[in-house]
Amino acid sequence: MIMNKEPDFPLISTELDLTSENHNHLYYSSLVPRTLKQILPSEFIQFYGSHPDEKEKLFKHFQSLLPFTYWKPTNSTPTNMSCYLICCYRPNAFKFFFEMISRWLIPGKRLNVLAMYASDFTIPEFSEQVYTMCEMVIRIENAEEMEAVKRNLPIIESEVRLGVVSSYYARRILEVKGLSNDEKTAMIQECIAWATARWPHNFSFDVFTEMQHVLVMCRDDFKLRRSVRHLSRLIGIQYLFRKDLRQKIRKHPGKRHLNLKFFQTTLLLSDSEKKVLGVLLAVNFLRDKEVFEETHLIKAIQNYIPEAVMIENSSFFNRRGAEPICTLYLEVEKQDGKLFTASEVTTLRNNLPKELGERVEHLIQPVFMPRNEEEIMRNILTLGNQIKYLRDIPQVFITFDEQTHHHLCFNVIIVRVLKEGDSLIEESFKNSSSRLEYIHDRTKTIGFLRKKYPKEATVCRLRLPKEEFLRRDHSIDLYKAREAVFAEVSNALGEVRDYNGGMISKQNELLASVRKLLQGIVNYNDLLLEDFFYSLNPVIMRTVLEPEALKTLFVMLLESISDGFFNEESYAMKVRAEPHFVYVMITAEHVELEELISEELALLDFSPSSLAMTQVNVYDILYLGYIFRSDDPQKQRKFCISIQHAIEKLEHQR
Predict the structure, then answer these.
(1) Which helix (H) or strand (E) is 407 found in, with range?
(2) What is the reported pLDDT for 205?
(3) DSSP per position, 143-154
(4) Quick one: which H or E segment has residue 572?
(5) In a 3-state reduction of DSSP, which class is residue 444?
(6) Of the ranges 354-363, 508-517, 588-597, which is most confident?
(7) Which top-rank group of organisms is this from (predicted)?
(8) Which pLDDT score is estimated for 151?
(9) Residue 168: φ, ψ to 5°
């Protein structure tokens, strides 16, 4: 056997290396190493050249590249393009590669294959593993075909890489591409082809790619229970949604865009039919770690129709690679089996688009921060100094510790006077049937009262499920979670003092008062109210402002959201003056306005406690709210003029 070795490249062995009278064998056997050296990443070649003796590392590096595909489209047409594949040996891998490239690189057209070549080989320096290398040369006739190739290459590449390592996936991919006797798949393909011919301005050949993805992701029982017409509509509308979002993203890249469609459809059961409501959603992501899943959509639907439930195995999620667009489909029914009324569907159609944008979840990396023991000891001593008499109630210090996938954890310090007959803190929690998980850290005596009664300090962690503290946008309401922790501590130990919760308690009282004033007067989103309230600055205003003043400004915010912009303006402003207050609510397109207003107001000789400011973003629009506390008409006028100056300055800059 004659081995073939290129300079700075591993030794390659093929069955064609056997001596033979056919001189073509020498050409083919030398073709494999030359091609490998040409298409493999330069990093591998360089590493081999500088570390030829590190066989194990080289072998692992080579294995990590597989399955490896290579092609290099050009802008010139007509042209011939080579497509390469390197993978571990598997029967019929070349046949699968040939079908994928020739038939599906440009859906709807079988490409002209000018040449093809495949060979099995080994790399004796590494192992006895057998590999396959394939090359196909295809003809690209014009620029339109080249654009289709560039568009479909990433998808075909991912499917090829999946199919050559798994016979199951190869068979599955080829089946959904209409290469089997699956009549339903073939009929769907015919429907899509008809739509492409009927509406060429709306559908191009890449709709077949959408069809492939939908049918690959659908379970067999999903296709079985749904009609050809419904599946074809689903594919077509999903394709149009994706196309529309791409156009919107190009025009407004920093904004959230969302498309929504409802289907009154029928499930084909074994002995009957069931009427259900299908929901198809397409949304773009603005940040890398944003997600939107079935739970987000079904909870939004249940917000308007509580008895709605998702049908098992009725959903599929489709996001392609790094593209910031996802589509989600699911079906819902009512628990009592009744049909959705036209008014209910209208309610969902009118309200869900706005709400779903708020429910996109942003995943945040967990933060590692070791506990500060010095701070814990300082807090223990502080609480101990608060206890001076036997009648003093226990002092509690609660701080947030961490969040896990399912739980929230809080650090809790409890300092009390230990009297005869008192139970252990741990026992008190067990006897209270608390829903919290008590995790004991330590207990120690930090002093005595009257040289007889010990002051006992207990440090522990309390863990509770986080599900009930998720807001509609899937952020966590730590205020509410902390309230729950304090309530459970009080339930276990009796009356205690929340040492570091005074400010939080006052904020909660003020927010509750505002909610009470709004009750029955206006319909509002509670998440919006919380964002409005917790954005108030200075922070002290969240405890000292009059509830009536906050109610007035919040109602102005709701009115501004409802009114929107005039087309020719980049801002809108509402002003309301009362004997002791001036309220201003500004709707702005440009975030720079807030800084300009702050600069203008800083020039006024006003007390910091006389001005409260809040800002919220709703559907990518900035809303700035101001409450100026003054009964002096001159000061009220200066305040309004300063804001107007800031707006004029922004307009001049633009």
Answers:
(1) strand 407-417
(2) 79
(3) HHHHHHHHHHHH
(4) strand 571-577
(5) strand
(6) 508-517
(7) Bacteria
(8) 86
(9) -65, -50
**Closest-CA residue to 86 (of 149, 150, 129):** 129
DSSP 8-state secondary structure symbol assigned to residue 2: -
Residue type, 224: L
d(CA 604, CA 642): 8
CA angle 495, 499, 500 (to 5 degrees): 135
Evaluate whether 486 touches 464 at the Cβ level (below 8 Å): no
The widest CA-to-CA distance across the chain, in whole angstroms, is 110
Name the residue among 546, 529, 535 with its Cα closest to residue 609: 546
Give the helix/strand (H/E) hosting 249. helix 228-251
CA dist 444 to 95, 362, 381, 492, Å? 74, 41, 12, 20
Coil, strand, or helix at residue 494? coil
CB atoms within 10 A of CB 243: 17
Task: Please give the structure tokens belonging to residue 511.
Answer: 């927010």
Radius of gyration of the chain (CA): 34
Angle in degrees, CA 508, 356, 478, rounded to 5: 25
Dist. CA 2–CA 20, nearest whole Å: 11
Q: Which residue has the higher pLDDT, 57 or 139?
A: 139
Q: What are phi and psi of 400, to 5 degrees?
A: -75, 140
Q: What are phi and psi of 213, to 5 degrees?
A: -65, -45
For 286, which DSSP code?
A: S
Which parts of 435-570 are beta strand (E)? 437-449, 453-465, 497-498
DSSP secondary structure letters along 621-640 = EEEEEEEEE---HHHHHHHH
- Rounded distance, CA 298 to CA 46, Å? 53
Q: Find all residues with CB under 8 Å of 95, minimum gap 6, and list them.
A: none
* 3-class secondary-structure state, position 472: coil
Closest CA to 74 of 158, 139, 135, 156: 139
Q: Where in the chain is the domain with CATH 3.30.1360?
A: 524-651
pTM (two decimals)? 0.51
Distance separating alpha carbons of residues 466 and 471, to the nearest angstrom:
10
Band the pLDDT of 2: cuts 50, 70, 90.
Answer: very low
Average pLDDT, the chain: 85
Judge whether 449 and 417 are in contact, CB under 8 Å: yes
Supply the pLDDT for residue 207.
87
What topology is assigned to 524-651 in CATH? Gyrase A; domain 2 (3.30.1360)
